[in-house]
Amino acid sequence: MYISDFLKYCPNCQNKLNQKNNFFSCNNCYFYFYQNPIPTNGLIIYNDKKEILLVKRKFPPKKNYWDIAGGFINLKENLEESLFREIKEELNILIEKNKINYLTSVNDIYFYKKIKHYTLCLIFTYKINGQRIKNIKSQDDVSQIKWFNKKNIPWNKIAFSGIKKALKLFFASF
């Protein structure tokens, strides 16, 4: 079930809503609503050996599946702020802004509590070395962290199809 499945009546006047694709409108009070994807961020962290760091999800959806570090962008937070916050919360490290590179964006569906949410994840890459590697600790909603090379990625246990696409694109660039 998608959020749009619940949008039958106008929240202002209770009139029946008209729907066209992702656009909802009310002919009575002119209420408009666009169902747009929820923005998220993700960071592919890699080392000198061209291994990537994957995190194991501690909670649903996709509990115990592998993912990249990242998450949802909060209200009044820009993309960079959200990325720095998520990495600090999940891995206990601070990342250097000037070493982040944009890779791609991927769309996905985040199925949570019987509702399907459309997401748009902006994926970045970050080469890590030195002391930052030693400081990485799984915390927050991460149960485990592990380094993987291109040959041992657990493709059947990657949490989201969009993340699989981004990882394949990343490895193709090496």
How does this structure look, described?
This protein has helices at 79-91, 131-135, 161-172; strands at residues 18-20, 23-25, 32-34, 38-46, 52-57, 66-67, 69-72, 100-112, 115-127, 142-148. The protein has 174 residues and is an alpha+beta fold. The chain folds into two domains: 3-34, no CATH class; 38-172, Nucleoside Triphosphate Pyrophosphohydrolase, CATH 3.90.79.10. Strands 4, 5, 6, 7, 8, 9 and 10 form a seven-stranded mixed sheet that branches. Strand 2 and strand 3 form a beta hairpin. The radius of gyration is 19 Å and the shape is elongated.
Give the count of helical stretches: 3
What's the shape? elongated
Distance between the termini: 39 Å
The count of DSSP E runs of length 2 or more, i.e. the number of strands, is 10
CATH level-four homologous superfamily name of the largest domain:
Nucleoside Triphosphate Pyrophosphohydrolase
CATH architecture of the largest domain: Alpha-Beta Complex
Question: Which bin fits the share of residues in helices?
Answer: 10-25%
The tally of structural domains comes to 2
Task: Please compute the radius of gyration using only Cα atoms.
Answer: 19 Å
Main beta sheet: strand number and arrangement?
Answer: 7 strands, mixed
Quick tags:
174 residues; alpha+beta; Nucleoside Triphosphate Pyrophosphohydrolase; three-stranded antiparallel β-sheet; 17% helix
Mind sketching the topology for me?
Elements lengths: L17 E3 L2 E3 L6 E3 L3 E9 L5 E6 L8 E2 L1 E4 L6 H13 L8 E13 L2 E13 L3 H5 L6 E7 L12 H12 L2
